[in-house]
Amino acid sequence: MRNLHNVRQALRLSRHWIAVTLCCASFWVAADARAQPAPVVWQMATEYPATSMPGEGLTTFAQEVAARTQGAIIAQPTFDASAGIKSAQMPAAIRDGKLQAGDAFGGALGEVDPIFLLSSLPFVATSVDSARRLADLARADYARAFAQQGQQLLYITPWPPTGLWSRQPVGSLDDLRALSVRAYDETSTQVMRAAGARAQNLSFADAMPRLKDGSVNAVLSSGDGGAGRKLWDFLPNFTAIGYAMPLSFTTVNNAAWQALSPAQRDAVTAAAKATEDRQWARLDTRLAENTARMRANGVVIQDQPAPAVQQALRHAGLDAVAAWQNRVGERGAVLLKNYLAAEAGAR
């Protein structure tokens, strides 16, 4: 009987210590959970498809940030203007905290600062190497302009060369003058009008309903990635006029940036650099991929534009560049002059 009593007492003690152990473990698990801060979440947006250069940039950046911060910062991108914000509205949306970060096409930001029109000036930087040299030369000016809008420049995204999508082939000046073109900034609108076409400065998102109702029958765009898929259903012709290689910019709200620890800012900076390097590297194969995809979907590509068409566009482009120089002020005009002189010397 004494042995049975001892066994029962031992069992009671065991159950007691198990309960105490579980209670302590729960306490420390809860305490540890409280000690781990919730991840910082950045809502990001672009008006372009996920498979376009800006869309792929946001996806790459989100992956890089998550990896480099061990999940402490989570970037959540949205595409196709699903957040209701187009490029022209992006700086204000980020400045005012509607989004923490986002991508905007530079050509849509001319009212914010004319320096953003630099990369889309006609026939100024039309190769990957020249476009990157111009972007590097102007980076400090871009960053300064964004800083005045309460945001930090994260990285730059280049676009493949801009061409002319159209419903009918553009083989003559009469064909050019028959176009009702979606242009993508003030400068390209001016160029297209001076060359004889009707032109409207429209965001990519706003251009799509106009294509469907027929009020627009041409689009100035590279048609990169998913953007091309939206265009070739309406515009089965593409003329490779080599107009420009414009840029998009990804920025973050300055308050969101300053809220990060120094180590986190270093990690995000590294993620942004890795993303930008990847974006430029993508261009090595992007044009060939886009061309193959377009042809596979029935797009007729005119690699050699009609001389009269190209001459008319280039002549109109000279006046547009001069107008931009007058508007941008001495710093921007000197920047462009230095770039052009360096390019001429390199030839």
- Kindly provide the radius of gyration, computed on alpha-carbon positions and rounded to a whole number of angstroms: 27 Å
Arrangement of strands in the largest sheet: 7-6-8-5-9-11
The low-confidence runs, each spanning 5 or more residues with pLDDT under 50, are 17-33
| Helical content (DSSP H or I, runs of 4+) | 40-55%
- Quaternary status of these chains? single chain
Q: What is the count of helical runs?
A: 12
Structure notes:
This protein has 12 helices and 11 strands. It has helices at residues 2-35, 53-68, 90-95, 128-147, 173-177, 186-194, 204-213, 226-231, 254-258, 262-296, 307-328, 330-346; strands at 40-45, 73-78, 101-105, 151-158, 163-166, 180-183, 198-201, 218-221, 237-239, 247-253, 300-302. Residues 17-33 have low confidence and may be disordered.
What's the SSE blueprint?
Blueprint: H1 2-35, E1 40-45, H2 53-68, E2 73-78, H3 90-95, E3 101-105, H4 128-147, E4 151-158, E5 163-166, H5 173-177, E6 180-183, H6 186-194, E7 198-201, H7 204-213, E8 218-221, H8 226-231, E9 237-239, E10 247-253, H9 254-258, H10 262-296, E11 300-302, H11 307-328, H12 330-346
Parallel strand pairs: 1-2, 6-7, 6-8, 9-11
Antiparallel strand pairs: 3-10, 4-10, 5-8, 5-9
Helix pairs in contact: 2-10, 4-12, 6-11, 11-12
